């Protein structure tokens, strides 16, 4: 009987000195929680960044305009706008100067708001008279 108890004690001691599964499980749980926190923070930062949509639109049926819309949830700042030079050279001189000044600008567009840039010409002039249309 004594020998049996001694063998049991030795077996329990060997079991305790074996691989520590409780430590491994706690480390894996810690790593999983850090990965989850990382993905949550990444998703939150992407949600809180500005999103801008740029489109060509007709205002008052034929006036050609470029519309910049903030479709995000935070304000966005437009720091510079550059237009195709071969296209803008076909516009009136006054409009060319105004568009050239947009290369260094600072305009804040708030969420669900838009900013309209007019080319001061109608779409039919662009289609019929302009060689460069983009």
Multimeric status of the protein: single chain
Main-sheet strand order equals 1-2-5
Which class of secondary structure composition applies to the elements? alpha+beta
Give the total of beta strands.
Answer: 5
Our count of helices gives 5
Mean pLDDT: 82
The percentage helix is 40-55%
Which H/E pattern describes the elements? HHEEEHHEEH
Low-confidence stretches: none
Largest sheet report: 3 strands, antiparallel
Shape: rod-shaped
* N/C terminus separation: 96 Å
List the helices and strands and how they pair.
Blueprint: H1 2-17, H2 21-47, E1 52-59, E2 63-70, E3 76-78, H3 85-88, H4 93-101, E4 107-109, E5 114-122, H5 123-129
Antiparallel strand pairs: 1-2, 2-5, 3-4
Labels describing this entry:
134 residues; three-stranded antiparallel beta sheet; two-stranded antiparallel sheet
What does this entry look like structurally?
It is a single chain. The protein is of the alpha+beta class and 134 residues long. The protein has 5 helices and 5 strands. The protein has helices at 2-17, 21-47, 85-88, 93-101, 123-129; strands at 52-59, 63-70, 76-78, 107-109, 114-122. The strands form 2 sheets. A 3-stranded antiparallel sheet has the order 1-2-5. The model has no long low-confidence stretch (mean pLDDT 82).
Entry summary:
This protein is of the alpha+beta class. Helix content is 47%, strand content 23%.
